[in-house]
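During the second half of the funding period, the structural biology subgroup turned its attention to how the target accommodates small molecules. The most pressing case was adenosine-5'-triphosphate, which had performed well in the primary screen but for which no bound structure existed. We therefore specified the complex as follows and requested a full 3D prediction, including the ligand pose.
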Amino acid sequence: MLFSQDIGIDLGTSNTLIYAKGKGITVREPSVVAMDVRETPSKVVAVGTEAKNMIGRTPGSITAESPLKNGVIADYEMTADMLRALIKKAQGISPFNRARVMLSIPSGVTEVERRAVHDAARNAGARYVSLIEVPMAAAIGAALPIGEPVGSMIADLGAGTCEVAVISLGDIVASNSIRIGGDDMDEAIISYIRRRHNLLIGARTAEDIKIKIGSAYPYDGEAAINIKGRNLTDGLPKNVEITSAQVREAIADCVNQIVDMICDTLEKTPPELAADILDRGITLSGGTALLRGIDKLISHAAKMPVKVCSEPLDCVAIGTGRCLEKNILGL
Ligand SMILES: Nc1ncnc2c1ncn2[C@@H]1O[C@H](COP(=O)(O)OP(=O)(O)OP(=O)(O)O)[C@@H](O)[C@H]1O
Ligand SMILES: [Mg+2]
């Protein structure tokens, strides 16, 4: 039986999305919690967008950060607090009308990490908690024919993790994951600019640069932008110009690790299924799938067609929700 409170949650390193049964995605917030550390235990001041806006601008007594690192829970209490607030937001007035929750978790996590996600959701007021692996949720969200006896390959490229899976007859046949993602690209841009230009920039500026001119493959209309930061020699503000080619060089190591992960998985895939993937192509989801040219680079390396699904940032959440609505996988 389906309860009206059924919700699907994509608990990501950078974004948390909630899909309410029959309504679609109703919550889309950054995975950030702001805490007042003067109180014991620390008190939640804000979650989501409001908390993200506090990053780098908080007085000493308030911290604002993501409770997840590389797709897994780094701070259990903060994760439960964030889930409680977001479930409440999804459901309106009563936070404790005991939702049935379908939560996505990265594949390849330990039993302890699985347990932590399960318990955090229970602690946040969920009545029943089912877990689904991210690549399976992404494949359902992208409407791949996972139940059929054909191989489908999905790669979910996120902020803290990238995962790839080959699915056939409702099961994962081959998979791989790495605990790096878009956040690590931002870090790589920060250290490149520090090394090359002796300039210090923040994580938000780095992400901005990546989204505006970053790419995995040369593209038409490459640009250069002026960025402001702090000169590490004299501590004064300074401007430098950064080009698309420089950003590509900065993030090359992260990008190559993603490509290698996909190619290694193809090598481990049974030949019939690999032939299906060659026909149907590889599907990409997750925010990092929006990096310009990453589809083209993967396609060159794997010698296969590659396409980005229609809503890469929402795909996993849509998958968790569809799973509840259609009772796919018999959950
Ligand atoms: N247009 C874009 N170009 C490049 N990167 C992008 C773009 N839009 C978003 N991103 C990156 O996508 C990432 C967020 O994606 P997503 O919401 O799928 O991650 P997540 O689910 O929170 O993380 P994870 O699945 O690793 O736990 C961020 O690193 C962000 O910088
Ligand atoms: Mg994700």
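Two results from this model are relevant to the next phase. The chain has three domains: 7-31+66-136+315-330, 141-180+255-308, 182-250. The first helix runs from residue 49 to 52.
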